[in-house]
Amino acid sequence: MTDPGLKDIWVYLSASPLLGLTMTLVAYGLAYRLYLRTRSNPLANPVVTSVGMLIGVLVLTGTSYDDYFEGGQFVHFLLGPATVALAVPLYQQFSRLRQLWLPVTISLVCGVTIAAGSSIGLAWLLGGSTEIQMSLAPKSATAPVAMGISEKIGGLPSLTAVLVVITGITGAVLGTKLFEWLRVTDDTAKGIAMGVAAHGIGTARAFQVSPQMGAFSGLAMALSAFATALLVPWLVDLMQFLISQSSSS
User: Fold this and answer.
1) Residue 59 to residues 10, 16, 65, 72: CA-CA distances in angstroms?
2) 3-state DSSP call for residue 1?
3) CB 7 within 8 A of CB 1
4) Which pLDDT tens digit goes with each residue over 72-101?
5) Shortest CA distance to 23 belongs to which of 44, 60, 53?
6) What are the E-state strand segments in the chain?
7) How far apart are CA 100 and CA 109, in angstroms?
């Protein structure tokens, strides 16, 4: 920062809560331009690249996460209204949703059960502790719900938050390509799969593909959070019983 103008701006921002907000908006703006330059390639997902930029800036400038979050919390607060706003496209698809309530319900229960069960099973097979298994179980739900479930069943909420982000980014980057390989062409089916597996970050990616896919992804995200809160504690008890039986035999 040899330019006096930039240096003055940095000195001002570094002492202000606006630092985190400015960094977040600038990083996402640059990441989104990069995403458009690559013709919306999912590998250039703006969430991934903006997070990478922010980590790099925090490390290079020696800025602590707490200082960054003083301003970043303003963006964090907007997650609530943004989630509620998903009701608009959902309302626009309500007539189609009424026709599909049974397959949507079945897909939801299967998706939540497989996501949580496979996570616990794999962690156990690889030698993961009980805390890690419980932290992994709700990773496909949206972050506020997943962290609450993790705390209730004996996991580490902070670890769950990281796993939720990784799960969402993975789904957003690989989801659409996976649909191509599996030859899934229906936007309703793709949206439900994306919402159940990759919550809000996957839903953001779904809206970039089509409004219908985004609407059903938002619906699946909301319903899977509800289903996860109901099903995962029961599933955890069942998995722990099966694991204890396997270990004692």
Assistant:
1) 15, 18, 10, 16
2) coil
3) yes
4) 777 777 776 776 776 676 677 777 777 888
5) 53
6) none
7) 15
